[in-house]
Structure formats: structure tokens, C-alpha cells
Design brief:
The complex is a heterodimer. By secondary structure, chain A is of the alpha+beta class. Chain A has one domain: Dimeric alpha+beta barrel (Alpha-Beta Plaits), CATH 3.30.70.1060. Helices cover 24% and strands 39% of the residues of chain A. Chain A contains two helices and five strands. In chain A, a hairpin with a 4-residue loop joins β2 and β3. Chain A is flat. In chain B, β3 and β4 form a beta hairpin. Chain B has one domain: Dimeric alpha+beta barrel (Alpha-Beta Plaits, 2-Layer Sandwich), CATH 3.30.70. Chain B has two helices and six strands, in the order βαββββαβ. In chain B, strands 2-5-1-6 form a four-stranded antiparallel beta sheet. Chain B has a two-stranded antiparallel sheet with strand order 3-4. The chains are: A alpha+beta, B alpha+beta. At the A-B interface, β1, α1, β2, α2 and β5 of A face α1, β2, β3, α2 and β6 of B. β5 of chain A pairs antiparallel with β2 of chain B, so a sheet runs across the interface.
Chain lengths: 115, 120
């Protein structure tokens, strides 16, 4: 079993949601992740706060960020266990972020570091 | 922290690769010794990107010219403290490397808990 990092982007429309809509949306995430966990495919997940800092190059220029369009900003991640990319993609395709027009899920195979 | 770099990677010899790897090992071990280390992973440069309506494209998601090559989670008391650690990252030695530092939302991450995903 390999591990895959899923990066969620988009879903800016979430900001305009009412408290009730937000509740329903959160429940969809919980249900989706709960199902992954029940299948033994869930390894961990965290949402990220929208603020941040970006450090660039040898001069180590620090800028406030990420300051990119919502659709380009990583809003959270999840680590998935799957046998191959096909399975990882299939497990990702009902992710709630894909309910938004600008939502994307980036699926990346993890190469574990020998520490 | 997300480590970003431009693709394609410059061609490097096995010796250079070894040297770079050593820099990363030293850097991360230093973070661990100070008690700030939580976890890290390097990502393969392969990937798939899913969009609504079953659109699936090959390859990692490219943000302008950059792609995410790996990440590291550190425990610090502030974003500024994490930035100070990030400034010493080997990814910034190449010239066009970028480190994005983001605060992780403090949630209950145990899927078996009744408070799963709720803010602590």
C-alpha cells in the first residue's frame, strides 16, 4: 500500500455560504473522510488557515501570502492509502471540493524519506 | 511548509543529489533536535489532478511555473517562528526555490471521534 497526498484547492464559494449550508458542506467532508477511514484508506488530514508567509530564493525574501487566487491556494490536505494512482483517483472523485466549479484535487504519490 | 520549485529539475549528478539530500537531512535533524519537528514527506513528480465533472489530467497541479515537491510540518508558537525555520531551508539555496508557510487549523483529526474535523 502506497501513500498519496491529496491537496485541495478552490471552493471560494464556501465563503458566501450561510451557517446552515456550511454545516451541510462540513458534513459531506466528514462523511467522505469517514468512508475512507472505514475502508482503511485514511491516514490523516488537516485544513489550513488562509493566511501564510512565502519565502523566496537565496535572498530569503519574506512576503505575506499566499496572496494567490483562491483557486490556486491549497486549502487543506489529506493523506490517503491506495495501491496505485488509479485507486487513489477513484477514491478522490467524490471529494466534496469537486462540488465547486473551481475545486480541484491534486493527487501526489508520497516518497517516504529515510530519516 | 510547502517546498516549491520550477520544473524541470536541473540535471544533477548522483554526487550532487547526495549532497542536496545531506543538506536536507542535516536541516530536518536540526529542527527535530529543537523539538519543532512533526512530520515530512517528499513527493514524486508524478501526479493526477481532478476537476469537477470527472475531468482528470495527468501530472501535478502547476501554480504558475512552480510545483510542490514536498512538505514539512513543524510545531512552533507562531507563524514568525516557523518563518525563521523556513529561512534556513535548503530549498532556498538554488535561487528560485520557494517555501510557503501555512498555519494548520487546530482540529480534532481522529476520524473515530465524534468531534472529527471540528475546531479544538
Amino acid at each position: 500500500m502506497k501513500e498519496y497526498l491529496l491537496l485541495f484547492r478552490g471552493g471560494d464559494a464556501m465563503k458566501g455560504m450561510s451557517a446552515e449550508e456550511m454545516q451541510v458542506h462540513m458534513q459531506q467532508w466528514m462523511q467522505w473522510m469517514g468512508e475512507l477511514n472505514a475502508k482503511g484508506k485514511f491516514s490523516g488530514a488537516q485544513p489550513l488557515i488562509n493566511t501564510g508567509k512565502v519565502i523566496t530564493g537565496t535572498k530569503k525574501v519574506v512576503s505575506d501570502g499566499p496572496f494567490m487566487e483562491g483557486k490556486e491556494m491549497v486549502g487543506g490536505y489529506l493523506i490517503l492509502k491506495a495501491g496505485n494512482y488509479d485507486e487513489a483517483v477513484q477514491l478522490s472523485d467524490d471529494c466534496p471540493v469537486l462540488a465547486f466549479d473551481d475545486g480541484t484535487v491534486e493527487v501526489r504519490e508520497i516518497q517516504e524519506l529515510q530519516m | 511548509m510547502f517546498f516549491k520549485h520550477e520544473q524541470p529539475d536541473p540535471e544533477s549528478s548522483p554526487e550532487q543529489m547526495q549532497e542536496v539530500l545531506k543538506q536536507w537531512q542535516t536541516w530536518i535533524k536540526g529542527i527535530a533536535q529543537k523539538g519543532n519537528y512533526s512530520s515530512t514527506n517528499r513527493l514524486l513528480s508524478t501526479g493526477k489532478t481532478l476537476k469537477p465533472n470527472n475531468v482528470i489530467t495527468d501530472g501535478p497541479h502547476m501554480e504558475s511555473k512552480e510545483m510542490i515537491g514536498g512538505y514539512l510540518i513543524v510545531n512552533t508558537n507562531s507563524l514568525d517562528e516557523a518563518v525563521e525555520i523556513a529561512k534556513t531551508c535548503p530549498n532556498l539555496k538554488g535561487g528560485n526555490g520557494v517555501v510557503e508557510v501555512r498555519a494548520v487549523m487546530s482540529i480534532d483529526a481522529n476520524p473515530d471521534s465524534d468531534n472529527f474535523l471540528y475546531e479544538k
